[in-house]
Amino acid sequence: MRERQALFGSAIFFLVAPGVVAGLMPWLVAGWRMEPGRLPLKLLGILLIAIGAAFLLHSFGRFVWEGRGTPAPVAPTEHLVVGGVYRYVRNPMYLAVLTIIVGQWLLIGQVSVLVYGAVIAAAVVTFVKIYEEPTLAEQHGAAYEAYRRAVPGWIPHLTPWDGTKSQAE
After folding, report:
1. I need a labelling partner for 64 at 20 to 30 A (CA). Which of 1, 7, 15, 24 fits?
2. How far apart are CA 12 and CA 27, in angstroms?
């Protein structure tokens, strides 16, 4: 039953948070206008949106099946999520959302969308530092601290963390 609740809660949160932040808001910021532009840039934008969406869905799935919870702070996971893309970078959801916003900027062709993305990036980094990292440290203790030391927050490693190596290695 917990898995079903986690799936439902994650689906709702997906629509409310990244759906609005990365899907709806760039278009609102742009006034629902797509500027004419170079086809290669528009295609790159579509590719970035698709890649970001794939990583976002993967990350949400990890929260449901590995963490037994949701990404929403009001319904957190029971277990620390460190598998899948979380083996490469600690914040794949935020990076995926920012990738989608950059893709939207390339597709829409308005600088206001890029400025919006920079504001979202600043807000996300602030949220992670002020709330998320301290909360995870409190909830998961040494396991989170070991993970935090081993896996970068924002620039993915090329090789996955296996969770067994000590900090000295």
Report:
1. 24
2. 21
% helix, strand, coil for the chain, step of 5: 70, 0, 30
pTM of the model: 0.93
Distant-in-sequence, close-in-space partners of 37: CB < 8 Å, separation ≥ 6: 109
Record the tokens describing residue 34, joined without a space. Answer: 């797509």
Select from 65, 6, 153, 23 the least CA-distant residue to 144.
153
Domains and CATH numbers, the chain: 2-150 (1.20.120.1630)
Give the span between the Cα atoms of 86 and 136, in whole angstroms.
Answer: 14
Taking CA atoms, 9 is separated from 45, 67, 74, 78, in Å, by: 29, 13, 10, 14
How far apart CA 169 and CA 166 sit, in angstroms, is 6
Neighbours of 8 (CB within 10 A): 13
pLDDT tens-digit map of 120-158: 999 999 999 999 999 999 999 999 999 999 999 999 999
